[in-house]
Automatic annotation (TrEMBL):
Signal peptide boundaries: none
Alphabetical UniProt keywords: DNA-binding, Transcription, Transcription regulation
Pfam families reported for this sequence: HTH_1 (PF00126), LysR_substrate (PF03466)
Keyword field contains Coiled coil: no
Family: Belongs to the LysR transcriptional regulatory family.
Domain named HTH lysR-type: residues: 4-61
Descriptive protein name: LysR family transcriptional regulator
Organism: Noviherbaspirillum album
DNA-binding found in the keyword field: yes
Spans through the membrane: none
Length: 300
């Protein structure tokens, strides 16, 4: 098989895995038109249509399914080999793709990323802020920094600290709010349905009547902004709230809602110098960060 033939097959498999040209383009690090051109080239060479194009995405035809079956997991084997070779790298240079949530990026990590870049100018950081897990096994990212009490078991990593949550209100809101300790009599900023799985959302459902929630949002950072501007009380992450001098803590941190902060990577990459350096740097900074709860010796 010629190199170009294999390249066309890589594009075919990427479209099959992601279900779209844009998803395949992101995975392969190319533009949308390149994926379309290479897929068209493969279909012309084989004389069959491999995908049905619909408004909701690309779906394999019978011919496409047969080709994918014959290829088996060859692309996964090649990606594994690439990770293994990358693990031999010993120089602090190259690219690190790191993914994290908006909460951690805005509340903790951006200054640390900048500091790391100054320490290692030969490394280029590519930061993806995404509240859904990017796939480390498929090399959509090299390192993930995530809040989770149940991280994926196939990844290696360690906990660096815990995020705490407390009830806050802005000084302006509290000046005009009802003079009562009854939380149910206050206006609240709450979570929309996309965040209903969070422990914080479940706590609010138990303690705050639904008709007292006057503002809902699908982002913890967005909730913090709403509370800052006086919409009502909010159950906020301390790491976000403490950066705003106008917020006052109304209810102390609720220990049952603590969330671990994990630094995660694929096992094949842990011996690569630049990834190891970033891992060690982030752990050193986060495990002593004043806005994170420290772990006990038994937690490590």
């Amino acid at each position: 098989m010629q190199d170009r033939d294999w390249d066309d097959l890589r594009y075919f498999l990427a479209v099959g895995r992601t279900g779209s040209l844009s998803g395949a383009a992101r995975r392969l690090g190319v533009n949308h038109s390149t994926v379309l051109r290479r897929l068209g080239s493969l279909e012309q060479q084989l004389g069959v249509r491999l995908f049905e194009r619909t408004p909701s995405g690309y779906f394999m035809t019978a011919a496409g399914e047969e080709l994918r079956t014959r290829l088996g997991n060859v692309d996964e084997q090649i990606e594994s080999a690439q990770r293994h070779v990358a693990g031999r790298d010993t120089e602090l240079s190259g690219i690190i793709r790191i993914t994290t949530t908006d909460t951690l990026a805005f509340g903790l990590l951006t200054p640390l990323f900048v500091e790391f870049g100054h320490l290692h100018p030969g490394i280029e950081l590519q930061v993806c802020i995404n509240n859904a897990f990017s796939s480390l096994s498929k090399r959509e990212a090299d390192i993930a920094v995530r809040p989770s009490n149940q991280p994926p078991q196939h990844l290696v990593g360690r906990r660096a600290g815990r995020l705490a949550s407390s009830v806050y209100g802005s000084a302006d809101y509290l000046r005009h709010a009802p003079r009562t300790d009854r939380l149910a009599e206050h206006a609240w900023v709450g979570f929309d349905d996309s965040l209903a799985h969070l422990g914080q959302a479940q706590w609010m459902e138990q303690h705050v009547p639904a008709d007292r929630v006057v503002y809902r949002v699908n982002s913890l950072a967005g909730m913090t902004q709403a509370v800052v501007h006086g919409a009502g009380l909010g159950l906020l992450l301390d790491v976000l709230a403490e950066s705003h001098g106008t917020l006052e803590r109304v209810v102390p941190a609720i220990g049952a809602l603590d969330t671990d902060v994990w630094i995660l990577m694929h096992p094949d990459l842990r011996s690569t110098a630049r990834f190891k350096a970033m891992n060690e740097f982030l752990y050193a900074r986060l495990s002593n960060h004043p806005r994170l709860r420290r772990l006990s010796a038994a937690d490590h």
